[in-house]
């Protein structure tokens, strides 16, 4: 499966919550967050909230412990490990921040499975305060995409990934939010889009599926994510090997542990005629 790159969003895709809200709510700063939200971009607000947490003597360890309690469906970790064992390259494109993402991946034992994490930089400064800065410095220039927040255009990140692959690999993209719609528009006919059903990106895609060139397969929870993702990977493997051998490849043993593995792959999102 050297020919497949799987790109995951993080919040509400790998973990089953928004990590920013999870930290702010758990540490008791929801009211201040909601008060400041109308006054500044989300990314800037999170940096401000880290300042407030530090001022109230909340430590980096306090934040890390909250992150380690974030909810995650029990089939997500096995799904990621299986995709990696099947030979896929795994990457993350997330509008969270590097400290949050790496803290949770390391806690879950998943950091080594991802070759690249694209997210907002997050680091601890000399005072011990977590700083969160934008992936794209919108104070200096605009990234020019009106679909995305000012600090990150995921579509531009996907285009950079595509350019590095030189058209030799298929991309499977998994996401849930509004920010995942722009990258879905950049995927090609050979790629796959896996939107989380009844979440914002799904709603946007359903408005006009004709705009999406990639094949669309929805999922609803971690069990569905695992089943659909691994069946797509296996289907790609079969297609790749048809050119070299008439014999179909056998299903990897990991796929056989999935209770629903013998079910047909869910049909692609129908396109209105």
Automatic annotation (TrEMBL):
Annotated Gene3D superfamilies: HAD superfamily/HAD-like (3.40.50.1000)
Keywords: Hydrolase, Magnesium, Metal-binding
Active site: 9, 11
InterPro entries found in the cross-reference section: HAD-like_sf, HAD_hydro_PyrdxlP_Pase-like, HAD_sf, Pase_PHOSPHO-typ
Obligatory cofactor(s): Mg(2+)
The keyword Cytoplasm appears for this protein: no
SUPFAM superfamilies, alphabetized: HAD-like
Chain sites annotated for binding Mg(2+): 9, 11, 176
Signal peptide region: none
Chain residues that bind substrate: 20, 95
An MF annotation (GO) of this entry: phosphatase activity
Protein name: Inorganic pyrophosphatase 2-like
Organism: Durio zibethinus (Durian)
Gene: LOC111281233
